[in-house]
Amino acid sequence: MSWARQALRALRARLFGPPKELVGTDQFGNKYYRVPKHETHAGQIIPERRFVEAMNRQPYQYQVGDFPTEWEAWIRKKRKDPPTIEEILRNENYREEMKQKIKDVLEKDKLLQAKEYKEGLVAEPARTHVKGHASAPYYGKSEPSPDPTSTASTFQPGSWVPRGSGGSHNK
């Protein structure tokens, strides 16, 4: 390398900081970079910076889970070293195994509940039919009552209209 090129590179590094270094890529094609800690021409120390260039995405389109958790931990500086492909694959296999085990346990629990319901060991959940919506003026009743009939434990919004008011809509 010529001395002029070395001088320009040193000047650029001093003025703009060191260039970004490609650290790795994930299975989706996202590229992960770092800019090492450096000192500016004014003497200010800039800490290490880590970032990702997402494949075919705009910055505002990121979704939770778009990047492997291992890489996300590296970007957020929760881990010092970037993850390896083997580590990512091992963790992905582990997550898939856990999903399958959870599915098996839920299925087994459903069968056990059905057996207990059938044998009468456990009462089945009560099925209630709610008419209307709680915010409706006549929740669960055909007409509002002129007398206050609800108590604290059975209060229904809009179920009582004071006498002489002419209804809840004339306010």
UniProtKB/TrEMBL annotation:
Similarity comment: Belongs to the complex I NDUFA12 subunit family.
GO cellular component terms, A-Z: mitochondrion; respiratory chain complex I
Protein name, as recorded: NDUF2 factor
Lineage per the UniProt record: Eukaryota, Metazoa, Chordata, Craniata, Vertebrata
Extent of Polar residues compositional bias: 148-157
Domain of life, source organism: Eukaryota
Region (Disordered): 125-171
GO terms for biological process, alphabetical: mitochondrial respiratory chain complex I assembly
